[in-house]
């Protein structure tokens, strides 16, 4: 009793809880007098990832849509047209606005309905709860904190649970946490010591206990609590609880028949839910540019309206010019105050010039994004035969952002790698052994023999060789599963032999044990603390497992102490070369070291193996050291580390192993291409540092000459964080500052390529706001170090930390465009945080794919998605945006100039039909087709030369100088249209009967020149011609002519619209009008043509050089061959790919 009290006081003293919760197991009150029973309210187990509800969808969606400047502006214009008498109809603004709002609402509503559907499938899945000694089935959402839950093998944990008991005798269970931290290996969790014997529902129901623990927090690897178990005695027994007792929601039970556990965190308080990032509306850089341009044009519009209003009243100040005698003002108009009249006129001018801001641009952009996204889903090269699926587009709003990416944040396990460890070779005393392909228990055909590269060792060496194989068969934490169920069929016998499947918390341990199996030594089982192995002579050898010195990231090694059947004590150790070599006193160190370095350069994961024999007295001393360290309640970890350090010494080196975490196909090539395209690639993983670093070398993220900088817990323990950061900063900035032109151009060998490795604990320290004034700059120093590193690896990351890293880079002063890619639920937070989120349809469920903006089958498909699709999307939409503003300046500026010639009377230059149909019919289809089909460079060249991606980086085609050029080009063309027509027809008769042109004929002439000029301007910008381009461009011009004849009553006499009757025909009957149209179109297009020719000749970009190169790419099939109506996609002609590589080396 006294011991329990002391323990409770120590626990309470060690933990400084700001806030804690008490959980009553099975909702049972504590015994009278034990402690006050205070029931607490906790949320239910419902998970919510949706954005809208049935009730708030309409108001919330409308509010979000009208936050867009354009939508709000068009709403105001529509209301103005309804309220006052304006030159144009309200339908011209209202109809396109209604269309945009409706289409967007339907799209967003459908996406949210899919999220609701996914939530319901999770919330309604059945769980089994123990009530009054019986199993009761409930829906997951009805689970409450304190409920005792039964979970069977292969079921997923419905909430965060504390393990009470397991069907395994030792009270352990095995769990995969793939959907949480990306690791698909099996991890071991432990039941509470005093409850592990409860194996039936009745026994579990007799448990009387409470759990005190911290309030929910998102760190997956941290948990602090204690359980108070009430027996017949007055005082409860207190036992500490840690992360080894906590089963997290989303993890899956493996290799354990069933467990009983108590719910402590439910619903949105589970660690998985706390690591979710809230889904927010993402906006692309192009959309932000559009909004900025919109504000500029809005200012131009207000200026025009203001100038015209002022000039109108200046002009009317003269009584002779006020109103003609036949248009006397009514008495009510005369009585109105001048300010009200002026404001009404100002609004009328606003409506008249309103067309400078194109509502149809937003409709066209929505259509372009929606239709353009199908080109990703239709791409055969992004289809995976194994999965039977291609790429998916969940959000089409961000297509062009794929062409602007500067930072790529990628998960490791399952994204860069296949999460399949493969044993490559082992080296014993300098002799190298390479078995054939072994991978996760699957033996490939023809793998029966052993390939020994070097000559076999002599008799003395053979003993060492067998000792090495035994060491690897014994020094691990692998579990053996005798039967494995596949598709509901148990396979226990295979070709007359019992088959076994190895499972472990470390996949490379499995690979090593399987490698030994192929080399003649098979690990059979651990039974009654005895490990059994089968040697080459098919004899069973038994070793008693006495102690396991577990692996940790600081020591970077693990050891076991075993006793052989002959009574000898062995200590076998395996670990990283840097952790083993300094502790070796004999063995062929140099030969093994050379092989280890060779394999490390190849990107393989290497481990060294050593041993020493222990006398019985030495073993007794080791036991004493370990037991005293394990019983310590304070500084237990420190004392264990000291004990391990003194035990693991004076080894004899046996050899080394090499294991490969097989990279996904073309992962290294993809990362190399992204680097060449100017992107920085960061790897964010929950995995161990050594594993992640090996993968980074294999995937060419780190190169041979990369100098690795470490910002890890191990280093910050030796030196404080402040000093480490400033040391690293000096290192990279000294190099950066001393870079000369030669080093930058690669002529000097002194230039260092830096790679940074940081772990989760250190990152938390860097990001944590410091109380000291000097500590606030850690974040900036860290960012400065990262900017000067070509690659960064962040290991041991919690899901929310991944999102914090992405957010940190997003918020840095350059505001770069970020992309996050991953395959598990642990990647969802960073996928939602990044500008563009890409999910991989991996083995770890579909959470990432479902929450992403785009989903692809494999990492290699990212290359084409960015370098080809992203490039095309950005080129297309940037032209679309600039062209729309240009053609609307051409359209409305003549209307502004016309007011100077009509007494500022708000008289339209163009007919109402032309005003309405200009953006909707006459000029909309050519730019829509251009924005869907344009390929300024062949796709094969874009894939071969990633540096072309740099030409469009940092929103280069939508910068202010280019925008101003397009605007001035529009103003110039508008002046040419208006004054060209005005001066050519001044004081002249043009028709055969001597009639003069009226104002509608003049307006129609200007409009005709306008439509032909803007359409031909687009034709000049088109590089990729298909019959559908020809059809749409020339068809639009033909449609304009036919419509004008129809509207003028020529084709359809019944439609004799009064003011336009016969106007178009009268204009076409005049020879000078024809000459004017041709002359003015040529003069308008000439400056742009001259500018392009000069720029291409004097200052060509990389893209333009390729465009004027010999047209080798003509031989290649295009991405899109247009047939049968719209488009049918065919992939590039592979038969010419090799030929193109040979004759286009400069690409």
TrEMBL record:
Compartments, record wording: Cell membrane; Early endosome; Endoplasmic reticulum membrane; Membrane
Active site location: 411 (4-aspartylphosphate intermediate)
Record's catalysed reaction(s): a 1,2-diacyl-sn-glycero-3-phospho-L-serine(out) + ATP + H2O = a 1,2-diacyl-sn-glycero-3-phospho-L-serine(in) + ADP + phosphate + H(+); a 1,2-diacyl-sn-glycero-3-phosphoethanolamine(out) + ATP + H2O = a 1,2-diacyl-sn-glycero-3-phosphoethanolamine(in) + ADP + phosphate + H(+); ATP + H2O + phospholipidSide 1 = ADP + phosphate + phospholipidSide 2
Highest taxon, organism lineage: Eukaryota
Cofactor: Mg(2+)
Protein topology in the membrane: Multi-pass membrane protein
UniProt family annotation: Belongs to the cation transport ATPase (P-type) (TC 3.A.3) family. Type IV subfamily.
Annotated protein name in UniProt: Phospholipid-transporting ATPase
């Amino acid at each position: 009793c006294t011991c329990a009290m002391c323990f409770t006081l120590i626990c309470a003293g060690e933990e400084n809880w700001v806030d804690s919760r008490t959980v009553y197991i099975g909702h049972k009150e504590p015994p009278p007098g034990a402690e006050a029973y205070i029931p607490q309210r906790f949320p239910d187990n419902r998970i919510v990832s949706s954005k809208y509800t049935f009730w708030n969808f309409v108001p919330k969606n409308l509010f979000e849509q009208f936050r867009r400047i354009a939508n709000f502006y068009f709403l105001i214009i529509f209301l103005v047209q309804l309220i006052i008498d304006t030159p144009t109809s309200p339908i011209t603004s209202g109809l396109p606005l209604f269309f945009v709002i409706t289409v967007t609402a339907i799209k967003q509503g459908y996406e949210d309905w899919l999220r609701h559907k996914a939530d319901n499938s999770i919330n309604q899945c059945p769980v089994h709860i123990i009530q009054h000694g019986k199993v009761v089935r409930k829906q997951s959402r009805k689970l409450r904190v304190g409920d005792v839950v039964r979970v069977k093998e292969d079921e997923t944990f419905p909430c965060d649970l504390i393990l009470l008991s397991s069907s395994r005798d030792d009270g352990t269970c095995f769990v995969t946490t793939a959907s949480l931290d990306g690791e698909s290996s099996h991890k071991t969790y432990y039941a509470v010591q005093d409850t592990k014997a409860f194996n039936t529902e009745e026994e579990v129901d007799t448990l009387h206990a409470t759990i005190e623990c911290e309030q929910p927090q998102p760190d997956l690897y941290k948990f602090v609590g204690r359980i108070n178990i009430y027996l017949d005695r007055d005082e409860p027994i207190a036992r500490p609880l840690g992360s080894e007792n906590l089963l997290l929601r989303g993890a899956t039970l493996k290799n354990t028949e069933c467990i009983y556990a108590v719910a402590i965190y439910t619903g949105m308080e589970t660690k998985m839910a706390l690591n979710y990032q809230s889904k927010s509306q993402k906006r692309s850089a192009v959309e932000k540019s559009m909004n900025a341009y919109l504000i500029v044009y809005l200012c131009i519009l207000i200026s025009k309206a203001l100038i015209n209003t002022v000039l109108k009243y200046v002009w009317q100040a003269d009584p002779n010019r006020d109103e003609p005698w036949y248009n006397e003002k009514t008495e009510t108009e005369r009585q109105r105050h001048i300010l009200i009249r002026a404001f009404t006129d100002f609004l009328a001018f606003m409506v008249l010039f309103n067309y400078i801001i194109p509502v149809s641009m937003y409709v066209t952009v929505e259509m372009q994004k929606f239709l353009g996204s199908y080109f990703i889903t239709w791409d055969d090269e992004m289809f995976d035969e194994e999965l039977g699926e291609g790429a998916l587009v969940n959000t089409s709003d961000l297509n062009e952002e794929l062409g602007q990416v500067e930072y790529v944040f990628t998960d490791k396990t399952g994204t860069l790698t296949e999460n399949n460890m493969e044993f490559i070779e082992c080296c014993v005393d300098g002799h190298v052994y390479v078995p054939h392909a072994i991978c996760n228990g699957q033996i490939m055909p023809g793998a029966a023999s052993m390939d020994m590269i070097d000559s076999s060792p002599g008799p003395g060496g053979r003993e060492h060789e067998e000792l090495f194989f035994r060491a690897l068969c014994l020094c691990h934490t692998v579990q053996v599963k005798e039967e494995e169920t596949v598709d509901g069929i148990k396979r226990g016998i295979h070709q007359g032999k019992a088959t076994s499947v190895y499972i472990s918390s470390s996949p490379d341990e499995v690979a090593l044990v399987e490698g030994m199996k192929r080399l003649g030594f098979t690990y059979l089982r651990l039974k009654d603390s005895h490990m059994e192995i089968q040697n080459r002579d098919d004899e069973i050898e038994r070793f008693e497992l006495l102690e396991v010195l577990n692996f940790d990231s600081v020591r970077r090694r693990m050891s076991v102490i075993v006793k052989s059947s002959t009574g000898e004590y062995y200590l076998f150790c395996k670990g990283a070369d840097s952790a083993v070599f300094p502790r070796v006193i004999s063995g062929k160190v140099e030969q093994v070291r050379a092989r280890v370095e060779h394999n490390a350069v190849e990107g393989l994961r290497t481990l060294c193996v050593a041993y020493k024999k222990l006398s019985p007295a030495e073993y007794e001393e080791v036991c004493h050291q370990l037991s005293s360290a394990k019983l310590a309640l304070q500084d237990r970890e420190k004392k264990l580390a000291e004990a391990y350090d003194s035990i693991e010494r004076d080894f004899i080196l046996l050899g080394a192993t090499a294991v490969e975490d097989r990279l996904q196909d073309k992962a290294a090539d993809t990362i190399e291409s992204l680097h060449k395209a100017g992107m920085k690639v960061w790897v964010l993983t929950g995995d161990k540092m050594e594993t992640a670093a090996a993968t980074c070398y294999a995937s060419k993220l780190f190169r041979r000459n990369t100098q690795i900088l470490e910002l890890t817990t191990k280093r910050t323990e030796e030196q404080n964080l402040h000093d480490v950061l400033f040391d690293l900063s000096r290192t990279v900035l000294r190099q950066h500052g001393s870079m000369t032109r030669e080093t930058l151009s690669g002529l000097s060998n002194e230039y260092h390529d830096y790679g940074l490795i940081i772990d989760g604990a250190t990152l938390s320290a860097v990001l944590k706001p410091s109380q000291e004034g000097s500590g606030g700059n850690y974040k900036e120093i860290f960012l400065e170090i990262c900017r000067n590193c070509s690659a960064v690896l962040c290991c041991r990351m919690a899901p929310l930390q991944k999102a914090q890293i992405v957010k940190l880079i997003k918020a840095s002063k350059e505001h770069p465009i970020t992309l996050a890619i991953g395959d598990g639920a642990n990647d969802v937070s960073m996928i939602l945080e990044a500008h563009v989120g890409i999910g991989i349809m991996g083995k770890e469920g579909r959470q990432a794919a479902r929450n992403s903006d785009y989903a692809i089958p494999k990492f290699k498909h990212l290359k084409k998605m960015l370098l080809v699709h992203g490039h095309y999307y950005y080129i297309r939409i940037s032209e679309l945006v600039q062209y729309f503003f240009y053609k609307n300046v051409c359209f409305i500026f003549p209307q502004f100039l016309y007011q100077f010639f009509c007494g500022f009377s708000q008289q339209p230059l163009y007919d109402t039909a032309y005003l309405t149909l200009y953006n909707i019919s006459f000029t909309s289809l050519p730019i829509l087709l251009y924005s869907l089909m344009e390929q300024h460079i062949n796709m094969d060249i874009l894939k071969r030369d990633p540096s072309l991606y740099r030409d469009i980086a940092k929103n280069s085609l939508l910068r202010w100088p280019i925008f101003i050029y397009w605007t001035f080009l529009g103003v110039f063309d508008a002046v040419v249209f208006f004054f060209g027509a005005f001066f050519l027809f001044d004081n002249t008769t043009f028709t055969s009967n001597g009639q003069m042109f009226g104002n509608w004929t003049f307006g129609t002439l200007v409009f005709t020149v306008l439509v032909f000029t803007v359409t031909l301007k687009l034709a000049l910008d088109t590089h990729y011609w298909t019959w559908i381009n020809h059809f749409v461009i020339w068809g639009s011009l033909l449609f304009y002519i036919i419509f004008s004849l129809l509207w003028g009553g020529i084709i359809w006499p019944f439609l004799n619209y009064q003011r336009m009757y016969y106007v178009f025909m009268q204009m076409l009957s005049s020879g000078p009008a024809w000459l004017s149209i041709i002359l003015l179109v040529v003069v308008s297009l000439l400056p742009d043509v001259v500018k392009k020719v000069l720029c291409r000749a004097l200052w060509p970009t990389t893209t333009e050089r390729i465009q004027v190169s010999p047209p080798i790419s003509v031989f290649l099939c295009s991405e899109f061959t247009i047939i049968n109506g719209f488009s049918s996609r065919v992939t590039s002609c592979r038969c010419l790919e090799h030929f193109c590589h040979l004759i286009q080396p400069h690409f």
